[in-house]
Structure formats: structure tokens, C-alpha cells
Write a structure and sequence with these properties.
Layout (H helix, E strand, L loop, with lengths): L1 H23 L6 E8 L6 H8 L2 H4 L2 E8 L2 H9 L5 E4 L2 H8 L4 E10 L3 E4 L13 E4 L5 H12 L9 E4 L3 H9 L5 E4 L3 H7 L3 E5 L6 E10 H6 L1 H20 L1 H12 L4 H14 L9 H10 L4 H5 L9 H8 L2 H6 L2
Helix pairs in contact: 2-10, 2-11, 11-12
Length: 334
């Protein structure tokens, strides 16, 4: 009888536990998040990994990932209230805000320029870029600004020493340099490998110049920060965990890059992985210095940029709270 009583009590406890789980599971329902990302580049790999490896779900999100061909279009959707967050670059925070929007960056994903300057085979040093024609996707883009800033760091005045023209996307720029229309351009993985295969020189890795700029980050609206802060906290945590995964799980990350970037070449995947894994920040503060670079570049042409405070374009509180909680230390077991 005692054994039966004991078994009965255990069964009753198990039943109660099961009932409690069932009762409280609805309280843990996933929260909706509409996340936009723009341009098909591996700079979005933390978002891809967070989706594919379950970090978004783990942190309580039912995420709808929406692709846009351009960051400006994604920002229009954000400002209109059709998105909750966008992964995009510093200009897409600054320019809408100058227009009266309440855009703000709450997390950094890539905190510097990552393009390479590639050149014709006979150009062996940055000094030899003087008097040459450079090609960019289009004028006014963050990549074009990166090229100009990099040239200045290398002792080349982009306005006086070179001519920079619009040449189109990566395939078009490769065609332009192949035909001699331009003598140098900017490129990144996985397209950099193709440029080298065609005989062009990888002249400068702009990332090594360590020019601060928020190349990619999580952008939202101040109104969303006030209204849906818990949702944004979950997004930041999920993407931070995805960055950790990228740094420690190379093969899994390469599989995700291959799926989204439609890249099957093993060497191209390896090079793309190494490039992005090396620049992703473990503690992803949106640094005002990465906004100041842009404002300083805009200042001669825009009085609003000259007077703006870089700190007003970022909200560091989400990463501060995450770091204070020990979340990042736990990820990296420090």
C-alpha cells in the first residue's frame, strides 16, 4: 500500500506540473517583429543565422524578415510604420532624422568599412591611383564615401587626384574595369575572389584602415523604443547570440551564408565567412564615432550635419542592459 500511495503521489505531482506548464505556456507566446534588411550582402549574416538557427524564436519572437533592394526603401517602410526594425547603415539613420523622422540605431552589426579597393594589374600602390578613374555603384552611397575616406587616409585626394564615376553593381564594375573604363573600384567578398581570378589586384583592404562607420546596424524609431521596448530587447539579444554563433560555428555559418547568398564555391564561402566573422563585434554598442564619420563627411555640404550631435542618432541602453545582465559574458563564458 505504501508503494502504491507513493506512486499515486508522484503521478499527482506530475499531473500538476503538466497542468502548470500548459497554463503558463500561452504567457510565453511569441511576440511579432517585422524586420527589414536591404541589399543581398553577407553583412546581414547575423540576421540570417538568428532566423535559421532559431535565436529569434528562442528569444520570444515571431519574426517576419522582409527583403528590400535598397536601404532607403526599407527606411521609408520603417518610418511609415510597416516595419519595426531595419538592418541598415549610418546614412539611413542620419538622413531620415534630418528630414524630421525619429530614427535611431540601437545595435551595431558591422562598425567599419569592409570593402576592398581593387585595381588594374599594373597598379601596385595607392600612390599610383593618382590620375586614375575609380568606379562606384552610385554617387552618395556609403560605399562611395568609404572609397573617398580611404583614399584620403592613403594620401590620395579623391577630388583633386582622381575621378570617381558611377559604374553600377559588382558585375558592372568588373566589366568596367575589364574594359578600361575605370582603373580601380571597390569590391567585397564573395565578388573579390572573382576579381582576383580575372587578374585584378586586391590593393587595399579598407577594414585595415579602421575608419569608424556604422556600416550595418539595427535601426528603429524612438516611438517604437517607447511602445515596444521588450520586443526590441529580444531582437538585440537574438542578434548578439547569432554573432557569437558565427564566431564559434564556422561550418554552420557557412551553410547559412551559402543558402542566402546562393554561394556554393567552397573557397568563396571560406573567404566570405572569415571576412565577416572578423569584423562582427562581441559587444555590439552603436558607437557615436561611427556616426561622426558620416556627419563630418556631410558637414561641408549640409549645415545640419555640421551642427548635429552624433550621440543623438544612437541609443546604447539596449546593449548596456544586455552587458550589465551578464548575457554576453555567459555567451563567451568569460
Amino acid at each position: 500500500m505504501r508503494m502504491e500511495d507513493s506512486g499515486s503521489r508522484i503521478a499527482k505531482v506530475a499531473a500538476i506540473v503538466s497542468m502548470v506548464v500548459l497554463l503558463f505556456t500561452p504567457c510565453l507566446a511569441q511576440e511579432r517583429a517585422r524586420i527589414g534588411w536591404a541589399a543581398m550582402t553577407a553583412s546581414h549574416v547575423p540576421l540570417w543565422v538568428a532566423q535559421e538557427k532559431g535565436m529569434l524564436v528562442k528569444h520570444g519572437l515571431t519574426a517576419e524578415l522582409i527583403f528590400f533592394s535598397a536601404g532607403t526603401t526599407a527606411l521609408q517602410a520603417l518610418v511609415a510604420g510597416d516595419l519595426d526594425v531595419v538592418l541598415t547603415s549610418a546614412p539611413n539613420v542620419v538622413n531620415p532624422r534630418f528630414g524630421g523622422a525619429d530614427t535611431v540605431m540601437i545595435m551595431s552589426v558591422i562598425p567599419t568599412f569592409i570593402d576592398h579597393i581593387i585595381a588594374a594589374p599594373n597598379i601596385t600602390s595607392p600612390e599610383q591611383l593618382k590620375g586614375k578613374i575609380g568606379g562606384v555603384n552610385r554617387q552618395g552611397t556609403v560605399s562611395e564615401m568609404g572609397l573617398r575616406l580611404a583614399l584620403r587616409r592613403l594620401g590620395v585626394d579623391p577630388e583633386r587626384d582622381t575621378k570617381i564615376i558611377t559604374a553600377g553593381g559588382n558585375p558592372e564594375r568588373l566589366a568596367a574595369i575589364s574594359k578600361g573604363i575605370v582603373h580601380f573600384t571597390i569590391m567585397n567578398e564573395p565578388f573579390l575572389k572573382e576579381a582576383e581570378r580575372l587578374g585584378f589586384r586586391d590593393l587595399v583592404n579598407i577594414a585595415t584602415l579602421k575608419i569608424p562607420l556604422q556600416w550595418n546596424g539595427v535601426v528603429t524609431r524612438e516611438a517604437t523604443v517607447k511602445a515596444r521596448r521588450p520586443m526590441l530587447t529580444r531582437v538585440v539579444r537574438a542578434l548578439t547570440e547569432a554573432i557569437h554563433y558565427i564566431k564559434v560555428e564556422k561550418e554552420g555559418t557557412k551553410a547559412v551564408i551559402g543558402k542566402y547568398a546562393r554561394l556554393t564555391d567552397p573557397d568563396g564561402l571560406e573567404r566570405t565567412y572569415k571576412k565577416y566573422a572578423s569584423v562582427l563585434p562581441e559587444t555590439p554598442y552603436p558607437d557615436p564615432a561611427g556616426i561622426k564619420t558620416l556627419l563630418d563627411d556631410m558637414a561641408p555640404r549640409n549645415p545640419k550635419a555640421a551642427a548635429a550631435d552624433p550621440k543623438s542618432f544612437v541609443d546604447q541602453s539596449f546593449v548596456q542592459e544586455m552587458e550589465a545582465s551578464g548575457f554576453i559574458k555567459q555567451l563567451y563564458r568569460r
